[in-house]
Amino acid sequence: MHPIAEKKLFLLDMDGMLYLGNQLFPETLPFLEAVRSRGGRCIYVTNNSSKNVDAYVCKLAGLGIAAGEDDFLTSSQATVRYLRREYPGILFYVLGTRSLRQELEHSGVAVTDRLCDGIGGLVMGFDTELTFQKLEDACRLLLRNIPYIATNPDWVCPTEFGYVPDCGSVSTMLRNATGKWPKFIGKPEPEMIRLAMEKTGCSPAETIVIGDRIYTDIASGLNAGVSTALVLSGEATPAMLAASEQKPEFVFDSVGDIARLLQK
């Protein structure tokens, strides 16, 4: 029996591994069914903070994947936990989507999207509604010594046609302008992986992280002390893997290869 077949908790990236944009990979549904048929639990762990959990439930439903709110952990959820723990009561300017701003607000974080008196911190995410005004506002705020938090360090987000700049790329642009670098919350930090194990009662030995990015997906699993599997259907390439100091325990061309192992 392959070691992956003994895992109980499968922590899955989505973009670039299960689908690209609105295109579901043909191997995805057989893979998810193979996990469930062995009694495994799938939780979707994503750094993409441009959508809230409800939006992800709807997106997966539109792709033919049945999932509920408890099946997701997002970098925006992890950011909420961090802000409430470390900076209670502080008003944060949100450089992000309306969805991110609403999720923070509904979770009890004081937020605004306009420069005003009383702003005590800046939080940013993957912003598909980015404007130059937001960048200018951020530069003004970063002239002060305020908490600066970013949901995730991803350089790019995959699409059907290639890639677009993600939160890490915009953070680099702001660092070039201000000299400031944020505290990143999502993968590769281990917080979401540990939260998933706590939520399900699974041990590190029973858990595996599967994703298409070495510096976020694989690194988060390594940092949390769990097994990792890299799939080459998204951002990572064999050349990237060879050059990386961070090595996954397993490497597959796609989740279809994992499905076939689980079906044996």
Bin the helical content: 25-40%
- Principal-axis shape equals globular
Mean pLDDT: 94
CA-based gyration radius = 18 Å
Strand order of the largest sheet: 5-4-1-13-14-15
The arrangement of helices and strands along the chain is: EEEHEHEHEHEEHEEEHEHEHEHEH
Name the poorly predicted regions.
Answer: none
Beta content comes to 15-25%
Structural class: alpha/beta
Biggest sheet descriptor = 6 strands, parallel
Per DSSP, the total helix count is 10
Overall number of strands:
15
- Span of the ends, CA to CA: 8 Å
Brief summary of the model shown:
By secondary structure, the chain is α/β, with parallel strands linked by helices. It contains ten helices and 15 strands.
Walk me through what this model shows.
- The protein has ten helices and 15 strands.
- The protein is an alpha/beta fold and 264 residues long.
- The model has no long low-confidence stretch (mean pLDDT 94).
Task: Based on the model shown, name its key terms.
globular; 10 helices; 20% strand; alpha/beta; single chain; 264 residues
List the helices and strands and how they pair.
Blueprint: E1 9-12, E2 19-20, E3 23-24, H1 28-37, E4 41-46, H2 53-62, E5 72-74, H3 75-86, E6 91-95, H4 98-106, E7 111-112, E8 119-124, H5 132-141, E9 148-150, E10 156-158, E11 163-165, H6 167-178, E12 183-184, H7 191-200, E13 207-211, H8 214-224, E14 227-231, H9 238-243, E15 250-252, H10 255-262
Parallel strand pairs: 1-4, 1-13, 4-5, 6-7, 6-8, 8-9, 9-12, 13-14, 14-15
Antiparallel strand pairs: 2-3, 10-11
